[in-house]
Amino acid sequence: MALSKIMELVDSLNSLSEKERQILQKELERQDFRLRRIEKDKSIAINILNATISDLEQNQAITRAANAKLSEQKKIIENNTALLKENLRKLELSYKELQQFSYIVSHDLKSPLRTISSFAQILKEQYQNEWDDEANEYVDIIIAGTFQMDKVIRALLDYARVGRSSEYFADIDLNEVLDLVKLHLRKEIQDHGAQIICEPLPTVFGNKTAFIQLFQNLASNAIKFRSEAAPEIRISCTEKEGQWHFRFADNGIGIEEPYREKIFLPFQRLSEELAPGTGIGLAICKKVVKMHQGDIYVEAGSNGGTVFVFTLSQQSSDNILVA
Q: Which residues contact 156 (CB under 8 A, 6 or more apart)?
């Protein structure tokens, strides 16, 4: 009922006094204001609800589109992951085949090489008095060549063996490894008055034979490439960001910067005079470090010598990298 009609009805009530009529009129005006306010609030609420519904519908459409795109990307990632796993499997298979091939070839080369060397020595012993100096020199060259080839094959075998026993990983006390290395090199250490000064080393997870090769090659190099002073090797280790950081510092002749990458390649030597041997030792060191998820490089020493820096992952049997 409209307020005007209600007011007319109120005016028609003769029994009401003027004061009662005024009170009733004010109450009716308040109720009419409340009703109009409710209608206005209802309209606002409906508009907000409609806008919210519209936003939700838009968001649902965006979410559906994003989910469809995410599903498509997930399929691409799954396909790429499967392809990557297959490539890694093929790469691992090729690496093992190549490793096995190099081991077999190196091993099988030793037999004919021994035959050549033996018969060359027999010829020299039985016929050296019947030959001239030039013929004897040729035989000496053959014998020396077979000895050098035998050293190269042995070095290649050592290089190929790194990682072949990588399934035998365990917790290794590197202090014990260093003691064994000192025992193996005791003659070189005594002959040249070498000192190996070492801080306490950690226990790491890895292959003991590989660690012996690593420490022994680095220590042997420091003695081999000594300066006029008695060789001094300082070994230290620190822990940083989930890795062990090792430093092998010596007081030897040092390595010039252009050669610091080259020396880690197999059969690479600085020169025949300065680097006797096969040039495989540091390549083995790099292979051992890589096998244990680390890296190795060379720095110039503060005293003019060389510092070999390498890292080893603080790994366990759950995340070891099998070479």
A: 102, 106, 266, 280
